[in-house]
Specification:
65% of the residues lie in helices and 0% in strands. It has helices spanning 32-38, 40-57, 59-62, 94-130, 132-146, 150-161, 167-191, 195-202, 207-218, 220-243, 255-263, 271-298. Helix 1 packs antiparallel against helix 12 (271-298), helix 4 packs across helix 10 (220-243) and helix 5 (132-146) crosses helix 7 (167-191). With 304 residues, it is mostly helical.
């Protein structure tokens, strides 16, 4: 007997559940990771961040001059072949200053973001998992910290601790904790009553294992997005402190302090503040683009 079954429609008794218009065997639906890696804006942003970070890490090899070397005869010289970005009020090469300043502007926020994660992750996990007075105490402390604008909170911390190279990083880290803590708490509340957590509890897993081996990986999506956002905000906050003269002490300089010093010579040497500002804008814009794109990938309700 000739088989007259309609193509794409399973015969009686068949266990083929593939829909008629579904993908053919061997084909794959593009994953969200591939969508992220294939997005042009994400590629450009990632390339910009990696490029700036590589230049900053290799500052001693990339910078044409010592950032503290003064050329008094070339004070406030404009961009040229000798000084690609011009010089500052002491005749120091601005390209070298920007390269070394980018290292500080990236290293300080990176340390602050890592420190805020080290503090905020366990507090957020404990607050969401245990609830009760732990949750109430953590949230009230977070509310108090969030009641102050981040810049004012950082200013208060710097004032209390006094100026030093580590003070801006500590201030940025403390100011970044509340937002991350609340994200982790919310994510923990969303998954702590799901079957895999209940099953882990039923088989006698310790709370530490449940928190860090079961719940924490399930919150990796929103936490990773918040981590990129925290890094972007930390860059801005560190630059704000440096712009106000509360960052790394001179003669070292970050992009924010270079921007602040360039303000005094805006009419005489507009390039002084222009190039540090453009570099800072490129860093923050790239991080925000990556956070937005990664947020689409990490969203569990966003279909591939």
């Amino acid at each position: 007997m000739t088989d007259t079954a309609t193509p794409g429609v399973p015969r009686p008794g068949s266990i083929n559940t593939r829909p008629a218009d579904g993908p053919k065997r061997g084909s794959r639906t593009p994953s969200q990771i591939r969508v992220f890696l294939g997005d042009r804006a994400s590629k450009v942003a990632a390339a910009a961040i990696l490029g700036i970070a590589a230049i900053a890490a290799l500052a001693t090899l990339v910078a044409p001059y010592d950032p503290l070397e003064q050329h008094r005869a070339d004070r406030l010289a404009g961009p040229s072949l000798q000084y690609v970005l011009g010089t500052d009020e002491f005749g120091r090469d601005l390209l070298s200053r920007v390269v070394f300043g980018a290292r500080i502007s990236l290293a300080t926020p990176a340390f602050a973001a890592a420190a805020s994660a080290f503090i905020g992750l366990p507090i957020g996990l404990a607050a969401g998992f245990y609830g009760s007075w732990i949750d109430a105490a953590a949230m009230r402390i977070g509310d108090v910290l969030l009641a102050f604008p981040a810049v004012l909170l950082a200013l208060a911390i710097v004032t209390i601790m006094g100026p030093s190279s580590a003070t801006p990083a500590i201030a940025v880290a403390i100011a970044s904790v509340p937002a991350l803590m609340r994200i982790v708490r919310a994510s923990t509340l969303a998954v702590k009553n799901q079957e895999f957590v209940v099953a882990a509890t039923a088989v006698g897993a310790t709370h530490t294992r449940i928190l860090f081996r079961t719940i924490l990986p399930s919150t990796a999506g929103p936490v990773s997005v918040q981590g990129v956002v925290t890094l972007s905000r930390a860059v801005l906050l560190e630059s704000s402190l440096s712009f106000l003269g509360l960052g790394v002490p001179p003669p070292d300089a970050s992009l924010g302090s270079l921007l602040g010093m360039g303000r005094s010579f805006a009419h005489e040497a507009p390039w002084y503040g222009l190039f540090p500002g453009l570099t800072l804008m490129g860093i923050v814009l790239s991080l925000n683009v990556l956070a937005d794109a990664w947020g689409d990938v990490a969203d569990p309700f966003n279909p591939p």
